[in-house]
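Title: Comparing notes on inverse folding

I've been comparing how different people in this forum approach sequence design from structure. To keep things fair, I'm posting one structure and asking everyone to reply with a full sequence. Here's the target:
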């Protein structure tokens, strides 16, 4: 599993650092290519039946996560910065059934990938502008997703 190097939180921001036993290019693809995202994204026991992404500055993203019980959670946003294979910045907002952003809550996700050599990658994920009431749940959800990502990368790198 990805080494849990740290999770920190303030009132409306969480920062999670992980070291993955996978090359940076593969971790980048896991964040930016639909077929990889479908394999790990979302908390434990959640699948991703829909993922539409246009990974370029100004490109849109739309993701549907589905719980084992069938509940759906839809998000959408826009890529603000794409610097392959080291930095990805996008907005993350609740969305309607058509993938349109719902007004009111727009958070910002920044993913930075550092090449540690020997096929290892340090990932720092910063999720900002979270509602304080949702911060703890987001932290748990992201950490569960990164556990899934570590397992996914281990299979993909083999």
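Reply #1:
Here's my take.
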């Amino acid at each position: 599993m990805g080494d849990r190097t740290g999770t920190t939180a303030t009132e409306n921001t969480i920062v999670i650092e992980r070291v993955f036993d996978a090359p940076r290019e593969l971790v980048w693809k896991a964040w930016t290519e639909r077929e990889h995202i479908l394999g790990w994204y979302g908390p434990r026991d959640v699948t991703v039946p829909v993922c539409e992404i246009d990974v370029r500055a100004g490109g849109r993203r739309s993701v549907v996560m589905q719980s084992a019980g069938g509940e759906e959670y839809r998000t959408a946003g826009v890529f603000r910065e794409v610097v392959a294979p080291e930095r990805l910045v996008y907005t993350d907002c609740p969305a309607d059934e058509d993938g349109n952003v719902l007004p009111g809550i727009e958070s910002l996700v920044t993913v930075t990938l550092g090449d540690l050599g020997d096929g290892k990658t340090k990932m720092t994920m910063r999720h900002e502008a979270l509602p304080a009431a949702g911060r703890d749940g987001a932290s748990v959800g992201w950490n569960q997703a990164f556990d899934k990502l570590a397992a996914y990368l281990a299979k993909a790198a083999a």
